[in-house]
Amino acid sequence: MQNLSPPLFFTLKERLIFFTFLCLILCLTLSFKFYQFHTLKSQNNPQITAQVLLQYTKSKQNKTYFVLKLKSDFGTFYTTSREDLQDLKHRFLSLRIILDKVSFWDFLRGFYAPSFNLLLLPLEDFRTPLREMILNQHTTKLMGEYYLALFLSDSLPLEWRTLAQSYGISHIFAISGFHTGILSAAGFLILGFFYKPLHQQFFPYRNLFFDLGFLVVLVLVAYYFLLTQSPSYLRALAMSCVAFFLLWRGLDVLRMESFLWCIFALIAFFPQLIFSIGFYFSSLGVLYISLFFKYFKIPQNTTGKILYSLALNASTFFLMGIIVYYFFPYFSPLSLFSLLLTPLFILYYPLELLLHLLGFGGLLDSPLLAWVSLKTHTITLQPHLTIFILCNALSFLAIFYYRAFWILLTINLVYYGYGIYLYFYGI
Fold first, then answer.
1. How many CA atoms within 13 Å lie on the side-chain side of 379?
2. Is 3's pLDDT higher than 60?
3. Which of 34, 45, 86, 99 gets the highest tally of CB atoms within 10 A of its CB?
4. H-helix or E-strand containing 81?
5. What is the dihedral sign for C-alpha 418, 421, 422, 423?
6. Considering the chain, what percentage of its residues have pLDDT values greater than 90?
7. Does residue 4 surpass a pLDDT of 60?
8. pLDDT band for position 1 (50/70/90)?
9. What are phi and psi of 251, to 5 degrees?
10. Calpha distance 227→178 (Å, rounded)
């Protein structure tokens, strides 16, 4: 059946007007960022308040020091301390930072700044009771922190990061578009159960789908404020809002041009995303999913739809391969399990969320602890810059040419086979 949904724009003039509007937004956003930067730089070692997102130790020249990732009103940054610090994760600090060597470019993309006069503040994070509720349902700190990462976007414990790299499932631990889709589906089911009778009795003239969609978007926005303002979730939330707006206006949400304008709009409002590898991965993931929808039509029968979903998951997994390995060159054949674990996570995530709400969050701790205790091995698989550029070029060409899509998929499949060869037979 031919898609009768109208495009976002009809003429070149409309596109130019919207592009000019986005350029204006980008200028205003950068101007505000520069105002923040200039205000801080004009002070002599400004004193700020920040929350500790991450704390870990590093060693250099036989000396150990702490590295702190901090979140402030102007964004996140790193600092270090050689003091013997207690566990400060999620606590609030008052400190002075030295910005002499920080440029505006550094300020946008995230920076390191030396600091001094660190003072612990008595401020409480409103998420503390929620964190304690999750931790109290688990007998081990490892499992408690695992679920804090899964539900509140806290840092993932090292043991789980190692396992995620080996099994190629890092994407299911970073709250992003994948989780947003699961939460949206669960939200439609739960809210629909309560709202549908009210709709039939009091609001039969309203569009049920759009009412539920609006309520789901509100829930997703509320969840954003529950998180530590996760950048990956913010990107997914912004894309979800744009997609809902397009549907509300009767526009084709799967049209490739709509997706590209969404990317431009996100950059205009959040220019720091230009420096985000996560945003780059998210955009490519959505692109590859859109390309699959473009070139392969959804079957009508149930068996065909199941096979279609599995093929979509496999296609996205392999198409992302070379680009992901270029930045994170950890390879193991165990990553093939991602093809099974990713769809299973669609059931596991809302189930665990429900179990934690009911107080039975530790029900699956034993098998998960046994899994994370398994020894895994990864090798370094670093693609050459040339093949990385080639894959990016083919990703763009695949928007227009079906053959480019297949060439890109073939290159990634061959490279994955090369990785398996190196894993078992490489020196």
1. 17
2. no
3. 99
4. strand 75-81
5. positive
6. 49
7. no
8. very low
9. -95, 160
10. 16
* Radius of gyration in angstroms for the set of CA atoms belonging to the chain, rounded to a whole number: 23
Query: d(Cα 66, Cα 342) in Å, to the nearest integer?
Result: 35
Residue 285 · residue 177 · CB < 8 Å: yes
Give the mean pLDDT of 117-121: 90
Q: Evaluate whether 255 touches 283 at the Cβ level (below 8 Å).
A: no
Query: DSSP string spanning 96-136?
Result: EE--TT--HHHHHH--B--EEEEEE-----TTHHHHHHHHT
Parallel, antiparallel or unpaired: strands 63-72 and 75-81: antiparallel
What is the helix, strand, coil percentage profile of the chain, to 5? Answer: 65, 10, 25
- Tens-digit pLDDT profile for residues 66-79: 999 998 988 889 99
Q: Contact 216/191 with Cβ under 8 angstroms? A: yes
Q: Which of 239, 227, 331, 324 is nearest to 281 (CA)?
A: 324
**Residue 417: half-sphere exposure toward Cβ, Cα within 13 Å:** 6
Is 143 in contact with 157 (CB distance < 8 Å)?
no
Rounded Cα distance between 144 and 136, Å, is 8
Give the N- to C-terminal CA distance of the chain in Å, as an integer.
54
With beta carbons less than 8 A apart as the criterion, state whether 206 and 199 touch.
yes
SS3 of residue 401 by DSSP:
coil
Q: Three-state SS for 60?
A: strand
Q: How far apart are CA 377 and CA 331, in angstroms?
A: 9
Q: CA 8, CA 250: separation in Å to the nearest integer?
A: 10
Measured CA to CA, the distance from residue 279 to residue 41 in angstroms comes to: 28
Please state, in angstroms and rounded to a whole number, the distance separating the CA atoms of residues 146 and 154: 9
Q: Is 206 exposed, middle or buried (0-12, 13-18, 19+ CB in 10 A)?
A: exposed
Cβ-count burial of 390 within 10 angstroms (0-12 exposed, 13-18 middle, 19+ buried)? middle
CA dist., res. 100 & res. 115, Å (int): 12
Look at the chain and count its residues: 427
